[in-house]
Amino acid sequence: MEDYKNIRNQIKKNYLKNLIIRLDFEDIIEFDSSTIKDITLYLREKNFEKNTGVFNEFSFKLNKEIKSIEDAQSISFDTLTKEVLVFNNNVDKIKIEICPFLIVINKYDKFDADYQGFEYFANLLIDLLTKIKNNEKISETRLGIRKINTYEHENIEIFNNYFQDYVLGDFYKMSLPKNSINYAKRYTFESSPYFINYQVNIRNGVIFKENNQPKDVYQLKLDFDIYKDSNICNDNLKEDLINMNTNLFNYYINAYKKDIINNYIINNKLLFE
């Protein structure tokens, strides 16, 4: 895996678009004012600006087996709405949402040479959780990481050259109009004590390059998430986060064909160049 260090940095720089870390805990009614103050002061020192927002969580209950459209229409949905503290760092492109049942850290865009690296975000989550636990009694219920990578190219056949057959599924066997593509494939894996979801999307669209000129392209999106629902505690939280991040990378790198990876390691040639 040491050979992958350079390719990991290059892929992160060029294709990683979103890193999301989420920690759920047992709901408390509201934060103590000292908790909000501690969090605000801590994040202000890291150049975050405080706002407020609303978090919506949707859930549904299946009271019977779904056998018809009428059965599907009878499903009842519950919406949990909570006011959240929102902290934005517009320079580093990081958004943090905190409310009495979760913490979400969202790193979007700007995965360049100044990107802080995963450990920065792991420490950020641990520090925030510690400040909450200093004043509140909570119990962690789920820890998860999500990473979204995207690739654009004008030649739709190019993806077949780079990615394993199982990643693309039956995409190239389907008769889809090339000007109207919206393909999705989802996989689930278990790597105890973690669970991994892996979604592939391919669609066509337009991007704007130099001189604001439109360009027709095809986009492939690899969307991974990993989570655990048990034995989450402060003492091994960082170790868990690093293990989960490594698991995600292993699944991600195995999505490529072996000769592409080997060629990259030998020639240091950026994919899709």
How would you describe this protein?
This protein has 273 residues and is an alpha+beta fold. The chain has 2 domains: 1-18 and 146-273, no CATH class; 27-138, no CATH class. Helix content is 29%, strand content 38%. Strands 2-3-4-5-1-6-9-8-7 form a 9-stranded antiparallel β-sheet, with helices on both faces. α4 (118-133) runs antiparallel to α7 (237-253). The protein is globular. The two termini are 24 Å apart. 17% of the residues are buried.
- Could you tell me the mean pLDDT? 82
**How many individual domains?**
2
Quaternary class: single chain
Helix content: 25-40%
Number of helices: 8
Low-confidence stretches: 58-69
Envelope shape: globular
Major pleated sheet = 9 strands, antiparallel
Distance between the termini: 24 Å
Content-based structural category: alpha+beta
Question: Numbering strands along the chain, what is their spatial order in the largest sheet?
Answer: 2-3-4-5-1-6-9-8-7
Please give the number of β-strands: 9
Strand content: 35-45%
Q: What value does the Rg take, in angstroms?
A: 21 Å
Q: SSE order, as H and E?
A: HEHEHEEEHEHHEEEHH
